[in-house]
Amino acid sequence: MEETANIRGFPFVFIDTAGLRQARDEVELEGIRRSRRSLEQAEVILHVCDASLPPNPLDQTLAAECAGKPRLLVHNKCDLPRKLPPATEGRVPLVEVSCLTGMGMETLKDTLRSLAWSGEIKAESLEVAINARHQDALRRARTSTVRTLEALKTGQSLDLVALDLRIAVNALGEIVGQTATEDLLDAIFSQFCIGK
C-alpha cells in the first residue's frame, strides 16, 4: 500500500511493507519481495513497532537489514501499557506516538521535516510537477534573487536592489495567485475556455 502526504511543506511517499516474515505461499512470497525492494529504494525507513508488545525478533532482523540506511524508530500504541523498552538502537532517533490519541504525531511530523531539511532525504525524491508558466516564473524569480544578492554584495543602490527584489516577488506571486500580469492574463485566456 502506498500513500503520498504533504508534511510541513514536503511531499512524502509512504509505502507500507507490512508482512516481512516467512512466506507461507507464493502470493505472500511475492509481497515480501516487493516489500524488500521498497526498503532498498527508500530514502528513509520509518521502523514502526508496537510498544504494547514485547520485543519481536522480526523487528531486530529488520533493524539489521536496514543498517546503514537513514532510519527513524517509531514506537506506536504508547497510550497502552508498555512492554517494549523505550531505549533507542544506537544513533537511530526514536519517536513515541499513539495513532489512536494523536500523541506524538506533531513530533513525528517535525522529525520528518528535519530529515528532509538535513539532506537525509534527497531533493530528487521530492519531485513536484509544475507547468511551464510556473517554471518560467521560478526561473525569473531565481534570476532576480541572484541579481539582488550580487547588488547587495557590490554595494549598489538600494533602489536597484529593491527593483530586482520586487521582480522576484512578483514572479512568485504569479505562482500563488497574488500577481496578475497582462502576459499572465493573456496566457490564461489563450489556454482556457472562460465564460463561453
Structure description:
- This protein has 196 residues and is of the alpha/beta class.
- It has 2 domains: 2-125, P-loop containing nucleotide triphosphate hydrolases (Rossmann fold, 3-Layer(aba) Sandwich), CATH 3.40.50; 132-191.
- It is built from 6 helices and 5 strands, in the order E-E-H-E-H-E-E-H-H-H-H.
- The chain has helices at residues 26-41, 57-65, 105-118, 132-153, 158-176, 182-191; strands at residues 2-7, 10-15, 45-50, 71-76, 94-96.
- The longest helix has 22 residues, at 132-153.
- Residues 123-129 and 192-196 have low confidence and may be disordered.
Residue stretches low in confidence (pLDDT < 50, at least 5 long) are 123-129, 192-196
Q: What is the CA–CA distance across the termini?
A: 43 Å
Which class of the largest domain in CATH terms?
A: Alpha Beta
Beta percentage is: 5-15%
Helix and strand sequence: EEHEHEEHHHH
Strand order of the largest sheet: 3-4-5
The outline comes out as: elongated
Report the helical percentage. 40-55%
Q: In the residues, how many domains can be counted? A: 2
What is the count of β-strands? Answer: 5
- Write down the CATH topology of the largest domain: Rossmann fold
Please tally the helical runs, counting DSSP H or I stretches of 4 or more residues: 6
Secondary structure layout:
Elements: E1 2-7, E2 10-15, H1 26-41, E3 45-50, H2 57-65, E4 71-76, E5 94-96, H3 105-118, H4 132-153, H5 158-176, H6 182-191
Parallel strand pairs: 3-4, 4-5
Antiparallel strand pairs: 1-2
Helix pairs in contact: 4-5
